């Protein structure tokens, strides 16, 4: 019996025990679904982060009074510097505008409530005061309406942009353009609608109301605001050198003593995305371990089923050996059966894992993740299926190949 005939015989045996094959393949399928599904979901979440920061550009960075992404440990205080006030932010913009584009932004409040007629938003809307470069440097786009004019920036006119989440709460399907809403007791005329931006983990880039910077300062009268600064340049080859120049200017503006640490944080605009990449690697490792443990349980179940199959087919093995089948051919036949069953289950698991993993990613990222076809994890899944088939089938196949043909023929 050659290899081709042995493969055909193995497939006929699988077809002859179709129900058992299907149930066994389902066990493997669930293991592959968990493995590939988790890894697909993680890749989808990473794509959401990449989408959120895709419009920021490689040569931009932020200056704040706090780190962009800080992991707090128990008993450790969050690192935060003295506020960057309006005078300091404006002075930096004047001094560094010749080097690149500079944008100023302030969080007037993170729990604003917008009202229109009888409707109002949840108290978690971000009210931002922005300057003329903010929309461009932070990757926002105006879907409807127009940008703020120089007069509106200079004279603190009560106009605003709305994010899509705010529009959904206040206007549902009607257009908000040229209508007036009330925020913090002040009427604001809506002149622009922001395109949906999304944010990783539902961070709230669409749950926002933007006003001119001077208008934001007017609305926060009596409160100390801190200003975030974004700097960008398309002409710089080395962003690190560019950032060091900006650091020197900001230290001068903040009057930091020589030899003392910076009294501000300076971070690449994509630093959160870079930080999340390392987190993603850890998540992938954890997901792989969890999926592999699930798959290991499926492999043990498959081995048990293959052992039962060998016992049931003892007489068949005896007949094959009496007709001249060598132990290697018997071993090969049972290994082929185990591998084919695993591959059938693996293909089914991959088909299930792709939509499940993408649905999880979409749910976590509020619909901002790209649809992922995980070619790498699909190949890994197929390879693992073959390895699981070998692992599960080797002992039952070895046991079958070592059977005495005379004793096998006597088996009832």
UniProtKB/TrEMBL annotation:
<feature type="transmembrane region" description="Helical">
    <location>
        <begin position="376"/>
        <end position="398"/>
    </location>
</feature>
<feature type="domain" description="MacB-like periplasmic core">
    <location>
        <begin position="21"/>
        <end position="247"/>
    </location>
</feature>
<keyword id="KW-0472">Membrane</keyword>
<comment type="similarity">
    <text>Belongs to the ABC-4 integral membrane protein family.</text>
</comment>
<keyword id="KW-1003">Cell membrane</keyword>
<dbReference type="InterPro" id="IPR025857">
    <property type="entry name" value="MacB_PCD"/>
</dbReference>
<dbReference type="InterPro" id="IPR003838">
    <property type="entry name" value="ABC3_permease_C"/>
</dbReference>
<protein>
    <submittedName>
        <fullName>ABC transporter permease</fullName>
    </submittedName>
</protein>
<dbReference type="Pfam" id="PF12704">
    <property type="entry name" value="MacB_PCD"/>
</dbReference>
<feature type="domain" description="ABC3 transporter permease C-terminal">
    <location>
        <begin position="289"/>
        <end position="405"/>
    </location>
</feature>
<dbReference type="Pfam" id="PF02687">
    <property type="entry name" value="FtsX"/>
</dbReference>
<feature type="transmembrane region" description="Helical">
    <location>
        <begin position="285"/>
        <end position="310"/>
    </location>
</feature>
<feature type="transmembrane region" description="Helical">
    <location>
        <begin position="330"/>
        <end position="356"/>
    </location>
</feature>
<keyword id="KW-1133">Transmembrane helix</keyword>
<keyword id="KW-0812">Transmembrane</keyword>
<dbReference type="InterPro" id="IPR050250">
    <property type="entry name" value="Macrolide_Exporter_MacB"/>
</dbReference>
<feature type="transmembrane region" description="Helical">
    <location>
        <begin position="21"/>
        <end position="42"/>
    </location>
</feature>
